[in-house]
Amino acid sequence: MSAKAKKELLFKQPLIKASEAREAGIHPAMLSYYQKRGLLERVERGLYRNTQVPLKMDFAWEELYLAVLGIPNGVVAGVSALALYNITEEIPRFHWIAVSHETSVAKRPMVKILRYRNYELGKTFIEKNGLKIPIYDIERVIIDSFRLLSTEVAIKALKMAFSSKHKPNIRKLG
Predict the structure, then answer these.
(1) Average confidence score pLDDT of the chain
(2) DSSP bridge partners of 116
(3) Distances (CA, A) of 6 to 11, 22, 24, 141, 163
(4) CB-CB contact of 87 with 138 (8 Å)
(5) Which of 13, 49, 65, 108 is deepest in the core (most CB within 10 A)?
(6) Strand, helix or coil at 123?
(7) What whole-number distance in Å separates Cα of residue 104 and Cα of residue 101?
(8) Paired sense of beta strands 111-116 and 95-100, if any
């Protein structure tokens, strides 16, 4: 694919990562130029919102989606994942994002970073309004809830999971 085709494809997306722009041959100074012209809006370091393409995301999940995209190789985990799967009564006070144990991530407001050694285990994607969100599968989320949250919250999540449309695989839980 040519650089021009990559650039055109990139500017059809609602969110643009600086790394994707670099791969498409767009210099960082051009991103600043597009931002000054009002074509891009800087969401956070390395992440821009295309003002010409609407972000078709539920308002409730928009900040979580932007947070997970803004963290390199971030994956939705913990209470945020339970809420996305709709298997908790808890309201996340901040976004729970998991990264590899070796990854260094700057502290961010409203984000709780979890560092996992077995980071790839259970990693999957769900689609919300046409956008792919990296998240751990329901089995990993339930097991992690027993490890990271109170027993009461974890048991409620387990019960809700078995009565929801996202039924966990018993063999994976064992």
Answers:
(1) 85
(2) 100
(3) 9, 10, 5, 35, 44
(4) yes
(5) 65
(6) strand
(7) 8
(8) parallel
Tens-digit pLDDT profile for the chain (174 aa)? 676 777 777 788 777 888 888 888 888 888 888 888 888 888 877 888 888 877 766 666 778 887 887 788 899 999 999 998 999 998 888 999 999 988 888 788 888 999 999 999 999 998 876 678 899 999 999 999 999 999 999 999 999 998 877 788 878 776
At residue 15, the pLDDT reads 79
Name the token pair of 81: 């994942």
Cβ-in-10-Å burial (0-12, 13-18, 19+) of 114 comes to middle
DSSP secondary structure string for all residues of 25-86:
T--HHHHHHHHHHTSEEEEETTEEEETTS-----HHHHHHHHHHHHSTT-EE-HHHHHHHTT
The residue behind tokens 């600086």 is 18
